Amino acid sequence: MKNNQNLKANDLIDALSFLRNDEKGSFFQRFFKTGKGEYAEGDIFWGISVPEQREVAKHFKSISLEELSSVLKSEVHEHRLTASIILVNQFRKGNAEKKEEIFKFYIQHIEHINNWDLVDGTAPTIVGEYLFQKNRELLFQLASDSNLWKQRIAVLATMYFIKKNDFEITFELSKLLLNHPHDLMHKAIGWMLREIGKKNYEVEFEFLAQHYKNMPRTMLRYAIEKFDEPIRQQFLKGTVES
């Protein structure tokens, strides 16, 4: 293995190529809905597990952003995911200047954060943590974009806010996207509402009581998953009053 400072994009791709498993890749192609008209149409999988990718990422922890750029632009899913794991690791260990550099790099490459696992593994840290004490208008810009993954990034970024007991942005984005047509957004919003409930049951209950009758069923089911069964049933039957 070369010194990390001298590693190149091709070194990272070569390391992943040794782990390629076409049988698993075929399964992942189906699991991640890569068929025509599906949400990940055209995405290519090499069949490499996430633990294997994390192990590779450890050996490339100091690879430059310049080199990561071409990996993140790859049509192979595991290339992009491994690059995103490295980005998150570098962000967590970086100083304020490094975090800003990675955040800007991420936004410049946001078109390549284009599947739910890529979004979910990066948005809470690289976007959420970075924006927590800054202007959050970008989240509303992303949520208003027509691109599904940018919208999911906006919602998942608020997981960091929720951990800090800051719920307002999540509620605002939930209202903005309440009638979104895709179930991946229904699941994401319901998940974040459920996370709020873990921190503060009363505020989640109050929000749901006001909006649940207009929610897609999947969103509601995700949001109330941790509620006591009698309360869950009241929401599902539409008998909770705001």
Labels describing this entry:
mainly alpha; ARM repeat  fold; Leucine-rich Repeat Variant; 242 residues; 2 domains
Structural domain count: 2
Strand content: under 5%
Q: Rg to the nearest angstrom?
A: 19 Å
Biggest sheet, in brief?
A: none
| Count of DSSP H/I helices | 14
* Class from helix and strand fractions: mainly alpha
Overall mean pLDDT: 96
Q: What's the count of strands? A: 0
In the CATH hierarchy, the third-tier topology of the largest domain is known as ARM repeat  fold
Helix content: 55-70%
**What is the C-level CATH assignment of the largest domain?**
Mainly Alpha
Low-confidence stretches: none
- What's the end-to-end separation, in Å? 61 Å
CATH architecture type of the largest domain:
Up-down Bundle
User: What overall geometry do the principal axes of the alpha carbons give?
Assistant: globular
Order of helices and strands: HHHHHHHHHHHHHH
How would you describe this protein?
It is a single chain. With 242 residues, this protein is mainly alpha-helical. It has two domains: 1-112, ARM repeat  fold, CATH 1.20.1660; 136-242, Leucine-rich Repeat Variant, CATH 1.25.10. The chain is globular. It has helices at residues 9-17, 22-31, 50-59, 65-72, 77-93, 96-108, 116-131, 137-143, 148-163, 168-176, 183-199, 201-211, 217-223, 229-237. The longest helix is centred in the middle third of the chain and has 17 residues, at 77-93. 66% of the residues lie in helices and 0% in strands. Helix 3 (50-59) crosses helix 5 (77-93), helix 7 packs across helix 9 (148-163) and helix 8 (137-143) runs antiparallel to helix 9.
